[in-house]
Design brief:
Elements lengths: L1 E5 L3 H12 L3 E6 L2 H8 L5 E4 L5 H6 L7 E4 L6 H14 L3 E5 L8 H10 L3 E3 L1 H14 L5 E5 L4 E7 L11 H6 L3 H4 L2 E8 L2 E3 L12 E7 L3 H7 L9 E5 L3 H12 L3 E6 L2 H10 L5 E4 L5 H6 L7 E4 L4 H13 L4 E5 L3 H9 L4 E3 L1 H10 L7 E6 L6 E6 L20 E8 L2 E4 L11 E6 L4 H6 L3
Parallel strand pairs: 1-2, 1-4, 2-3, 4-5, 5-6, 12-13, 12-15, 13-14, 15-16, 16-17
Antiparallel strand pairs: 7-8, 8-11, 9-10, 9-11, 18-19, 19-22, 20-21, 20-22
Length: 453
């Protein structure tokens, strides 16, 4: 597949590296020589230096041959991305995607306008991040969560601590401790350990610090949480550190949901702006959130959740550690440096949010067969979660899962069939129009995709 990316900022560079690793032909356009040099220092993509809105430059990147054009030019008005995407479409790009920075562009009516103009997807990473945090707070006993079909199937991730009931058990022993009814409602699908993802076997042992990935039906949630020694605590209040776009959208969403919200921002002018834009029920405070005395004076210890969104990874992680020491039950940190994610989890941050991983999942599905509905990169692992809709006659329907030679480093976790959701086992036969949730290591993605063509 030929992919042209407009913009070599953080998101564009991450996408270039990810898509090149999947053996795609990737060309990146940017008018900043330093960004281009930084990108080519760690990945072998083609580059074009020049104005990304220039037809001449777009032609130099051969956009007319592109299967996918991604407009993610950094630190600029969204119009540059929209113009670039529209020009690429007119020049012959098969599919075009554009990053925007205005929520209004994402309402149904406006999305339809742009779709009619030829832009297949518009995305706002900061909005996606805010939505993800809201989802974390709903499933607040897990390190991460993902819902399929409005929660009928759920992927939940648990971090094993010293008091975890399954610590030092083998998977076989865990299964023996589980009733036959529960085995039909949930299963363990993977373990992330020391930055390595393991598809567990029966003799795999659960160890301290493991991130355990599970899939469950809605009916199995309570029993699954009990096995992991977790209970969902009601989150009624949120202390947000950082008043950027994510913090603003999150504060609006949470106060709309009835939560008590306090937002701390270090820039006085931005505080004034937020006070004019956000509901009066959001308490906005000007101050330095890196100061633990200040946080205590502002009553951080009285809140159920603490979300650090300052734009500085180190400050976000350390302030979450402080919040934990003050007794805040749930902490979430924005961490944009992927190298820091594992460190943040080791330091006790409950959830990590990364805009690049969220964005990558939304875009990666456009490189697959067209039957992939959702792709999600989970933090703490290099694995991907994919939801496919099964086409009639595809290879996945030719027999029981155990007999179709499905890739070893992938697991079909669950199936949604009509209004029914169930956990997949070896004897399960996938049927046309099923929605299938798959957990897979990156090297298996193209092989998996062949089963659904």
């Amino acid at each position: 597949m030929k992919v042209v990316i407009e913009g070599a900022g953080e998101v564009g560079s991450h996408l270039a590296k990810m898509l090149r690793a999947e053996a795609n032909e990737v060309t990146v356009i940017d008018d900043n020589a330093e960004r281009i040099a930084a990108l080519t220092s760690y990945t072998d993509v083609e580059t074009v230096l020049g104005n990304p809105s220039s037809i001449e430059i777009l032609r130099a990147a051969a956009v007319e041959k592109a299967d996918l054009f991604i407009a993610v030019y950094p630190l600029a008005a969204q119009e540059i991305n929209i113009v670039g995407a529209l020009l690429a479409k007119q020049l012959g790009a098969a599919k075009v995607i554009a990053r925007v920075n205005d929520e209004d562009y994402l309402n149904a009516e406006n999305k339809l306008i742009f779709k009619e103009l030829g832009i297949e997807l518009m995305f706002y990473p900061e909005k996606s991040a805010a939505d993800e945090i809201v989802a974390f707070l709903k499933h607040n006993s897990t390190a991460e969560t993902m819902d399929f079909a409005r929660g009928r199937l759920q992927i939940a991730v648990f971090k094993l601590t010293e008091d975890s009931p399954i610590l030092d058990l083998k998977l076989l022993e865990f299964i023996k401790d589980t009733t036959s009814e529960e085995l039909q409602q949930f299963r363990v699908i993977a373990i992330s350990r020391d930055e390595t993802t393991i598809i567990p076997k029966l003799d795999t042992k659960f160890l301290y610090g493991d991130l355990v990935f599970t899939i469950t039906t809605r009916e199995g949630v309570e029993a699954l949480y009990r096995h992991f020694g977790k209970t969902n605590v009601s989150i009624d209040s949120a202390f947000i550190l950082g008043g950027g776009p994510i913090g603003e959208m999150l504060a609006r969403s949470l106060t709309r949901a009835g939560l008590k919200v306090k937002l701390v921002e270090g820039d006085k002018d931005r505080c004034i702006e937020l006070s004019e834009k956000l509901p009066e029920t959001v308490r906005i405070v000007h101050g330095d959130g890196r100061n633990s005395d200040f946080l205590y004076e502002e009553g951080i210890q009285e809140y159920d959740s603490f979300i650090a969104l300052t734009g500085n990874d180190e400050s976000n992680v350390l302030s979450c550690v402080v919040a934990k020491k003050f007794g805040v039950p749930r902490t979430i940190a924005e961490v944009e440096n992927i190298e820091y994610i594992h460190i943040a989890e080791e330091m006790g941050v409950d959830n990590v949010i990364n805009k690049k991983l969220i964005t990558a999942g939304r875009i990666f599905k456009f490189t697959l067969s067209g039957k992939a509905r959702v792709v999600r990169y989970m933090t703490g692992t290099n694995a991907e979660v994919i939801e496919y809709t099964v086409a009639p006659g595809s290879a996945i329907t030719t027999g029981p899962i155990k007999d179709i030679d499905f890739p070893r480093n992938a697991i079909i976790g669950g199936v949604i069939r009509g209004s029914e959701a169930f956990i997949a086992v070896g004897d399960t036969v996938i049927q046309p129009y099923d929605r299938v949730a798959i957990f897979a290591l990156p090297e298996t993605i193209q092989d998996i995709d062949k089963f659904f063509k």
